[in-house]
Amino acid sequence: MPFGEGELTVVPFARFTARPADPDNAAANSANSTDLETRLNELLKEIQVALVPAQGEPFIVFHDSLRHFDDRSDLLAIGSIVVDPSQPAGVKCIRELQD
């Protein structure tokens, strides 16, 4: 998935809104945002390569907000669990679920 889709639309949005708000620095802001886009795309590629061994392996997530990332990376999240909405799931909780 190319940059500019999903959660990564913030950089183009920031570029668009910064232009009229800070016209004196428009060129520098544009160059900085282009550099950030490039670095984020490179990071996404690195992450996707690192996740190749996990492709096709079912797993459970503790928050359902990153499903688009699972889809982008060909991961197989089979569900999400909320044990206690007021407490983040920790190692103890995961061990109990495994047992």
Q: CATH topology of the largest domain, what is it called?
A: Rossmann fold
CATH class of the largest domain: Alpha Beta
Largest sheet: 2 strands, parallel
Counting DSSP H or I runs of 4 or more residues, the number of helices is 4
> Structural class of the helix and strand makeup?
mainly alpha
Low-confidence runs of at least 5 consecutive residues: none
**What is the typical, i.e. mean, pLDDT?**
80
Describe this structure in words.
By secondary structure, the protein is mostly helical. It has two domains: 6-50; 53-98, Nitrogenase molybdenum iron protein domain (Rossmann fold). Helix content is 52%, strand content 9%. The chain has four helices and two strands. The chain has helices at residues 10-21, 26-50, 67-72, 91-98, and strands at residues 58-61, 76-80. A two-stranded parallel ribbon has the order 1-2. α3 links the parallel β1 (58-61) and β2. α1 runs antiparallel to α2. The two termini are 37 Å apart.
Task: Map the helices and strands.
Layout: H1 10-21, H2 26-50, E1 58-61, H3 67-72, E2 76-80, H4 91-98
Parallel strand pairs: 1-2
Helix pairs in contact: 1-2
List the main descriptive attributes of the protein structure presented here.
99 residues; mainly alpha; Rossmann fold; 2 domains; two-stranded parallel ribbon; 2 strands; 9% strand
What's a quick, concise take on this entry?
The chain has 99 residues and is mainly alpha-helical. The chain has four helices and two strands, in the order ααβαβα. It has helices spanning 10-21, 26-50, 67-72, 91-98; strands at 58-61, 76-80.
